[in-house]
Structures are given as structure tokens and as C-alpha cells.
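Check this:
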Amino acid sequence: ANLPYEVIIGARYCLCTALDEAAALTPWGSNSVWSGSGLLVTFHNETWGGEKFFQLLAKLSQSPREHINLLELINYCLLLGFEGRYRVMENGRSQLETMKQRLLQLIRSVR
């Protein structure tokens, strides 16, 4: 697929973040080198994925037609269990469910 570089980087960022969280939640991942040098560190040299993932979602949501592919990827990451910052926030899961519903409505309005 002939995708713009920005889309590829955005997709890689989301996937790295979601996979890092999934690994960190396993018995082997939480106490391994993965926790300090996961995919996000390797490919993007940062560790703020649990926060920035949702900043990216907010930015992309402003132009959903233009960013529908990344919005759908973000939706899949959330459906597969990614929670990011909401995992540790008080009432975070409830807030995340609301966000997921809004994202699904946004995607349906474009598709």
C-alpha cells in the first residue's frame, strides 16, 4: 500500500506502544529488560506512549476522513486491551470506555 511516511510512523508508534504494554503485563515482561528498552524506546526513543497514544488520537480525530486508517488501527489496539494512562487513573476504565464509544462513532461516520 502506498501510504505516506507520517501514516507509517503513526502506525508504528501505536503498535509499539500497545505491544510494549501487553508485554509489560506478562509475568516475563514486567521484570525483564523489555520494561526499560521496549519497542517504543527502540524505534521512537521515548517512553511516554501511554500518554502520547491518546494525544495522537485526539489530534487525528480532528480530521477523521484524512486519518481514518490510523483511527481504525487505534481502535483495534483499544479493542485488544490497550489502556495506557487510563490503566492507572481513578475511574480510568470508565473514561476509556466512553472514549472507545466515541471513537467507534467517529469511524462509523466516516466509513
